[in-house]
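Before we proceed, please read the two lines closing this message. Tell me what the token row says about the fold.
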Amino acid sequence: MKPWLTIQPEGIRLTLHVQPGARKSEIAGEHGEALKIRLAAPPVEGKANAELVRWLASYLGLPRKSVTLLTGERNRHKIVAIAGLDAATALARLLPAA
């Protein structure tokens, strides 16, 4: 199991390192004990956080309400809860090459 993925009763939790202001939103590999995500949204007025939740839900094929930002509202280091997704499926979707 990856250090950035935690199994929860209702789904999973991801520890993320988010880089806003990128050319396009994408997974950029692992960054220490976090999964690095580049976001095509500026880090102003919560736009990057909203884009993170929207993009992650879309990327994982889940409704937006399944993704919740738990910590890191004003920080690059964030923890996100994802309901209705098991660890094996999450890993297959987040790291398809692995």
Observations:
- Helices lie at 47-60, 87-94.
- The radius of gyration is 12 Å.
